[in-house]
């Protein structure tokens, strides 16, 4: 359900109150990662940047872990007659992600969502915006993929810059299809620019389009912090999709608190996970990021 009438494509979509069980209808491996698709016959279509708290059968079997659900950004969503097909891109880094990465078509996943604050449109955050500059790194390309699709459907000009460690860590790149406005950076230099995706961002912002660009980014904390600093240095408006350890996902536990630039804290699950870059003092959040 939408939060109210007359709101834009990117307004926060509210989750149904109860956790629900959804069928896993597809699973594929892509590089080091897994993409699985769940059919949500109850829930509304999520907005780009929102996330779900997931669990599955097998939870708690790794010496009692994981105990709590785990948070995942939605990478793609498509409304069908049978419900919303939700795609998740995930990396098995621990007990919860290992259970989810092993789910086959025909099995089920338990979910709560969509949760959190989504990305804004460029004109919502920057009235003078000429378009969007999307920056994704590693597994963080998931919310960038769905954002890019929404912007394209809304006719918003968007350029996408993606960075990866190496080919195996570029799983999910196919979520971007035949995207012509795509810049690639690989740390091992086997394709595209040799180095970081933030090198490409600096070049993109060096032109005279800098003042009208709106930057959207998701990736490892050091990448997000570099994006935050680059944009702050040039006065460019940016939104960052961040991570922090989340226990509940709906504002009750305060486990996801992130320091604000002006003092105090925000709960990333309800005030984020998408935040204005100038709201936070640093994107280097304790306990976040895949090692
Ligand atoms: C809003 C949000 C969206 C996310 N979207 C995705 C996604 O699309 N795909 C994906 O693979 N992962 C995503 N994550 C991260 C994912 O939730 C963690 O990797 C997961 O919780 C790890 O659980 P685990 O039981 O497998 O491993 P754990 O044993 O809990 O952790 C294993 C390692 O993962 C790291 N880690 C733990 N919790 C987090 C966390 N919250 N964020 C980042 N790293 C963590 C730690 O460094 C730890 O060493 C997201 C996290 C948040 C908060
Ligand atoms: S995860 Fe519980 S308050 Fe944010």
Layout of strands and helices, then pairs:
Blueprint: E1 20-30, E2 33-40, E3 51-56, E4 70-73, E5 76-80, E6 83-90, H1 95-101, E7 108-115, H2 122-125, E8 131-137, H3 141-153, E9 158-164, E10 182-186, E11 193-194, H4 197-206, E12 213-218, H5 221-234, E13 237-241, E14 257-259, E15 265-267, H6 268-271, E16 274-276
Parallel strand pairs: 8-9, 8-12, 9-10, 10-11, 12-13
Antiparallel strand pairs: 1-2, 1-7, 2-6, 3-4, 3-7, 5-6, 13-16, 14-15
The structure holds flavin-adenine dinucleotide and FE2/S2 (inorganic) cluster (FES).
Concise overview:
By secondary structure, the chain is α/β, with parallel strands linked by helices. Helices cover 18% and strands 31% of the residues.
Description:
This protein is of the alpha/beta class and 291 residues long. It is 18% helix and 31% strand. The protein contains six helices and 16 strands. The longest helix has 14 residues, at 221-234. Residues 1-9 have low confidence and may be disordered. Residues 246-249, 251-256, 267, 269 line the site of FE2/S2 (inorganic) cluster.
Named once each, the bound ligands are: flavin-adenine dinucleotide, FE2/S2 (inorganic) cluster
Mean pLDDT: 90
User: Runs with pLDDT <50, length 5+?
Assistant: 1-9
Shape verdict? globular
Task: Name some characteristics of this structure.
single chain, 291 residues, alpha/beta, seven-stranded mixed beta sheet, 6 helices, 18% helix, binds flavin-adenine dinucleotide, binds FE2/S2 (inorganic) cluster
């Amino acid at each position: 359900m939408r939060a109210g009438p007359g709101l834009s494509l990117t307004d926060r979509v509210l989750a149904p109150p109860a956790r629900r069980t959804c069928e896993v209808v597809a699973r594929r491996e892509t590089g080091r990662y897994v993409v699985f698709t769940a059919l949500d016959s109850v829930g509304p279509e999520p907005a780009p940047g929102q996330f779900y708290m997931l669990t599955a059968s097998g939870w708690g079997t790794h010496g009692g872990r994981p105990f709590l659900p785990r948070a995942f950004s939605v990478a793609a969503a498509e409304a069908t007659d049978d419900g919303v097909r939700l795609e998740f891109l995930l990396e098995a880094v621990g007990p919860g992600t290992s259970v989810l990465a092993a789910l086959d078509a025909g099995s089920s996943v338990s979910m709560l969502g969509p949760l959190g604050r989504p990305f804004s449109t460029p004109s919502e955050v920057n009235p003078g915006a000429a378009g969007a500059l999307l920056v994704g790194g590693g597994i963080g390309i998931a919310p960038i993929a769905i954002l890019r699709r929404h912007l394209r459907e809304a006719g918003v000009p968007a350029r996408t810059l993606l960075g990866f460690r190496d080919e195996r860590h570029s799983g999910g790149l196919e979520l971007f299809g035949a995207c012509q406005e795509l810049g690639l950076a690989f740390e091992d230099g086997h394709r595209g620019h040799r180095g970081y995706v933030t090198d490409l961002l600096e070049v993109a912002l060096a032109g005279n389009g800098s003042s009208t660009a709106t930057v959207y980014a998701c990736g490892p904390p050091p990448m997000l912090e570099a994006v935050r600093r680059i944009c702050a240095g040039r006065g460019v408006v940016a939104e960052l999709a961040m991570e922090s350890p989340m226990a509940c996902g709906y504002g009750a536990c305060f486990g996801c608190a992130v320091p604000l630039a002006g003092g105090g804290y925000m709960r990333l699950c309800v005030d984020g996970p998408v935040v204005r870059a100038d709201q936070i003092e640093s994107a280097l959040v304790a306990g976040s990021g895949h090692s």
